[in-house]
Amino acid sequence: MKVRQLMRLKPKTVTPDTPLERVWQIVSELKFHILPVVDENNRLKGVITAEDLLKNLVPDYRNFFSEFYPDAPTIDDIVDQIEKQIRLTARDLMNKKVYTANSDQDVFKALSKMMVYNVRILPVLNDDEKLAGFIVEKDIFKYLFQKEKHIFAKLQKLKQKKSS
Q1: Mean pLDDT of all residues belonging to the chain
Q2: What is the tally of structural domains in the chain?
Q3: What is the pLDDT of residue 66?
Q4: Rounded to the nearest 10 degrees, how much is the dihedral formed by the CA atoms of 107, 112, 114, 115?
Q5: Using an 8 Å Cβ cutoff, are 123 and 131 in contact?
Q6: b/e code 10-33 from CB counts within 10 Å (16+ = b)
Q7: Which of 30, 40, 60, 66 is the most exposed place for a label (fewest CB within 10 A)?
Q8: Beta bridge partners of residue 122, listed in sequence order
């Protein structure tokens, strides 16, 4: 089975210049919390995940314990940092190192890549290197379960025979 047969189509995307507030809003509404960043030709430039947003935006807890960390920033430093973060765009937040699948690739290759790189979702590119959709680990497992359902049924029958 090919990736194109299992991939989800038409993912929400943003451009590199999309402001932080809009990125945050879209990611919070997404089911899978991964937002592809594409250029005007729909070429993948990076992805933003909920984790990326949190890592970039949640202040380091040490900032609030200056008595334990002598070099901790002052309140003014923290306010300055927040003001800078408000001006961030998708370009500033996106992860540029993205593992992808090709729409004509075998599903097992995509699953292998997910397992090797410990990701659950891969953006899918077509032959022109444009974003075509994404493939989700859960969908691959669902497909595999359906495909091999007869094996589970046989195992269940054997188990029942053995116990009787």
Answers
A1: 84
A2: 1
A3: 58
A4: 140
A5: yes
A6: ebebbebebebeebbebbeeeeee
A7: 40
A8: 135
pLDDT grade, residue 76 (50/70/90)?
Answer: confident
Instruction: Identify the CATH number of the domain in which residue 69 sits.
Output: 3.10.580.10
Q: Across-strand partners of 14?
A: 37
Task: Identify the domain containing residue 70 by its residue range.
Answer: 3-163
pTM, rounded to two decimals: 0.73
| Residue found by looking up tokens 């029942």 in the block | 160
User: Looking at the chain, which runs of residues are DSSP E strands?
Assistant: 8-9, 34-38, 44-49, 101-102, 121-125, 131-136
Assess contact for 109 and 94: CB atoms under 8 A.
Answer: no
Q: For residues 129 and 125, what is the distance between their CA atoms, to the nearest angstrom?
A: 5
Residue 130 near residue 42 (C-beta atoms within 8 A): yes
